[in-house]
Amino acid sequence: MAMKEIRLHGRGGQGAVKAAQLVVRAAVNGGKQAQFIPFFGVERKGSPVFGYLRVADEPIRRKTQIYTPDMLLILDDSLVMLPETYAGLKEGGVIIINSTKSAEELNIPPQAGTVAEVDATAIAEKHLGRNIPNTTILGAFGKVSDLVDTETLFSTIEEIFGKENRNCAEEAYEAVTIIKK
Amino acid sequence: MADRAYITPIADEDLYVLDTASWRVYRPVMDKSKCVECGMCMTYCPVRAIIGTDDKKYKITYDYCKGCGICAAECPRKAIDMVLEGGAE
Amino acid sequence: MGVIKVLTGNYSASEGAALCRPDLIAAYPITPQSSVVEYLAGKVHNGVLDSNLVQVESEHSAMSVVEGAAYAGGRVFTATSAQGLALMYEPYFRMATLRLPMVMAIATREMTSPETIWSGQQDAMSVRDAGWIQMFCDDNQEITDMVIQAYKIAEDEGVLIPVNVCYDGFYSSHLTTGVDLPLQEEVDAFLPPVHFNHATLDPDHPISLDPMTPGNLLMKYRRSHLEAMKRVPEVVDRIDKEFGDKFGRYYGGMISEYRIEDAEIVIITVGGMTGAGMDAVDAARENGIKAGLVKLRFTRPFPAARVAKALEGKKAFAVIDRSVCFGWSCGPMYMETKASLADAADQYCHFSAIGGLGGADISTDMIYSTIQKLEDNKETKTELETQWYITE
User: Fold this and answer.
1) Nearest C-alpha neighbor of C306 from the set C255, C359, C360
2) Are C60 and C92 in contact (CB under 8 A)?
3) Which of A36, A140, A154, C301 measures 20 to 30 Å from C256, CA to CA?
4) Is C318 in contact with C389 (CB distance < 8 Å)?
5) Does B24 touch chain A (CB under 8 A)?
6) C3-247 and C255-388, same CATH topology
7) CATH numeric code, C3-247
8) d(CA C368, CA C357)
9) B32-89 has which CATH code?
């Protein structure tokens, strides 16, 4: 499997960093190579957070930002208004987004391939009582991508964050819908 | 004045428009039935979001409140609750 | 075989330090180093690490406290970045010039001003003439491995100089990936217990440590320090081999080389940019450019002989610096590379490339542009203007 570059977009406090670190752990546990670099402007709640996640079979050497992502994982749909969110998405790139909006409302870029959305905020509030959509969106990630073995992902979520978070991920796995092919 | 470019980093525009209120996830809400108007909250607020009114009472303004929760933590009467933004006033 | 753990760069440094059984740790938090000591504090608190963790109120105190522990013959560890390194400069200089071994991790960060907290190498570079051994890591595995090797290098009887293990702030310090952690027994077998005693304060054998020293005598100490620095490359190479034989990972010693043998174009890198540099070299090779890479692992002492040898017969080189050399219009490692070549520099097309300051990224595209510029000018045997990785 050639290296896949996934760019995460979230806001401080939504758990983007922890989610990506979890994917690294699941990938490494599954015998793959993985790397995650967080990037913040200001390190505080509400501030846009970028995550640069890479998964590959071969060792990953570069430690740079991601300019041409294969996939976007967006934890907060208000971020689609910022130009850097969709910038550089590869032709046919996949978008997974925490949202209930339509593809038009989300201004999906023309080159996007599959766009999957799930109301991670609602699912998280239901199971956790808080708007921390990170483990939830990992459920959607598990369904839509085949980068990490799903069972490994879910058991890693349970191991690190507990059963309730696993429930979030499992519900998102079922609830995620494709809004553009 | 090309010579003046990039000498010392200064900013002299847009200094006062930082919308720190948008950073809030939780907002502090005073329970006036418990409040004894001691003013500790105002003393501790790092952004001066809590003000004293003319009649020596204290109120929280939400223009710049970041929701840090220090006022709630410092209130000796536990009269301030941190409520999820978008929840009930 | 060790245990695979998923760690950030900072935690990789912490794990490396813990495995070396430090007697005392004292550090002050600063972005981006903070989690190094938080992690170690957690281990001490949980009884996993038997170390004396001293809480201090500044980096100046941190270095002073570890210095004191080193006077007592202890193995000590600290970590810092940028402004913290600047604040501890006075005891930092003294640590090296008293010839006390220790290891300090630096999560390198840009120096203010302009105001910044992000990645850069100016901090480590600006103290390169304070007598420490300095080395720069590329990835998290190397961070763990080099903290362990660094103690052995520092405590070597022929060396007795403290070591900085540097790695890029944020781009390495906050980077999460899998690391093969050596087992405690393996490290114990590799790294003997601390044993230096050339300056140890012991009430049963009183000495006066660092009395007022007249100039003529001071110069002898400086000369001895410089002589010890000359012995470092051999020690580094020897320990690299020992480590590789035991743990299966060889790093090349003072420098490492990538696709150098038949290269015409060479880029020289320092720290985490090396990974992207290798990817850029591969891409260039696919486009018919005979590119190669030299990674400056140790910058103090500067590996002059090995760099000169690696560049022998090549046509063009550039050094990518993540810092500037004030007073010269270029980066500091470029200056020193040129000095290694002396007159031979005239045989090459060469220039300094500066990028990645203040948290800016050094992308594979930027490095490729340097390779392309070298390729386009490879027959010119001239020094070109410094290339800046700035998007206007």
Assistant:
1) C255
2) no
3) A36
4) no
5) yes
6) yes
7) 3.40.50.970
8) 18
9) 3.30.70.20
The answer to whether C264 and C315 have CB atoms below 8 angstroms apart is: yes
Residues, chain A, total? 181
**What domains, with CATH codes, occur in chain A?**
4-180 (3.40.920.10)
What residue of A is the nearest CA neighbor of B67?
Answer: A45
Say whether C52 sits in a helix, a strand or coil.
Answer: strand
- What are the pLDDT tens digits along chain B (89 aa)? 445 678 888 877 766 677 788 878 899 999 999 999 999 999 999 999 999 998 989 999 999 999 999 999 999 999 999 998 875 44
**Amino acid in position B56:** K
pLDDT per residue over C208-256, tens digit each? 999 999 999 999 999 999 999 999 999 999 999 999 999 999 999 999 9
Domain ranges (residues) in chain C:
3-247, 255-388
Q: Check A67 against C363: CB less than 8 A apart.
A: yes
Q: State which CATH number among 2.40.30.10, 3.40.50.920, 3.40.50.2300, 3.40.30.110 fits the domain covering C255-388.
A: 3.40.50.920
- Residues of chain B contacting residue A131, judged by C-beta atoms under 8 Å apart: 25, 84
Angstrom distance (rounded) from CA C276 to CA A35: 13
**Hey, is the C-beta of C347 within 8 angstroms of any chain A C-beta?**
no
pTM for the model stands at 0.92
C114 at interface of B, judged by CB pairs closer than 8 A: yes
What is the spatial distance between Cα C135 and Cα C149, in angstroms, rounded to a whole number? 11
Does a cis peptide bond (omega within 30 degrees of 0) precede residue C32?
yes
Tokens of C128: 């390169």
Angstrom CA distances, C335 to C179, C302, C331, stand at 34, 11, 7
A65/chain C closest Cα distance in angstroms: 7
